[in-house]
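Blackboard transcription, Thursday session:
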Amino acid sequence: MRVDVVTLFPEFVRQCAGFGVVGRAVERGLLELEAWNPRDRAEGGYRRVDDTACGGGPGMVLLIEPLRKTLAAARQAAATPAPVIFLSPQGRRLNQDKVRQLAALPRMILLCGRYEGIDQRLIEHEVDEELSIGDYVLSGGELAAAVVIDAIGRLQEGALGDAESAAQDSFSDGLLDCPHYTRPVVHEFGAVPAVLVSGDHAAIKRWRRQQSLGRTWLRRPELLEPLLLNADDQRLLDEFKLEHKGHPHEQDH
Ligand code: 9WO
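(Written on the board underneath:)
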């Protein structure tokens, strides 16, 4: 897929996509990233991209025209239509379902704000969707855009070494991940759960499923509510609950 990012800090976005799984997706041509700086389309010797807020108060607001011209240029850089997604705390909250939907698009344009924000008229006329990565304020949309790029980049077909590893992650079925262990099997901090070194693959699979269900129940019970557990899952969770009796919704570490 192709992602265009409109940002006053294009280097930041390029650097973010240069490492690890997403870096490899870019190298393999699975993810095409281009950053566009609205300053390149700003007027005058000062290349102004902002002005003071109408109504007064401290801080600056990004001007309509440099952003509008930059969005037009980004749109025209490829034939496929692209939704414009503005990263802001006022947006709908991103989750793994939304990540999967976005990852399946051929293209998208991510719009990053800075300062106090973007002129509302630009948002109303040019933005298709406002997306938040969580309830906190950043100094700009770039880190949020990097989060979106990372989450969708790793889902591009062929981005992950093992095709299975994306399917087995946290949230792939709406549950939290199970705990993971590696050598040494016995350590000052404790021993690896015996089942994981038993060689009994069916028992290991059951244990991991039970841990996923149990951890979701303990830590994020609201994630379980919309899920319809089958009889096997329900039995695993009931057994987990019995083992945790008297400690409802207590962190298990
Ligand atoms: C700045 C500010 C200053 C004083 C009082 C209130 C204020 N709000 C903001 C503000 O929201 N600035 C934004 C910075 C303008 C748009 C880009 N910025 C941003 C995006 N911060 N945080 C995000 C963001 C994006 C997606 N998900 C979470 C946070």
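Lecturer's comment: The first helix runs from residue 10 to 16.
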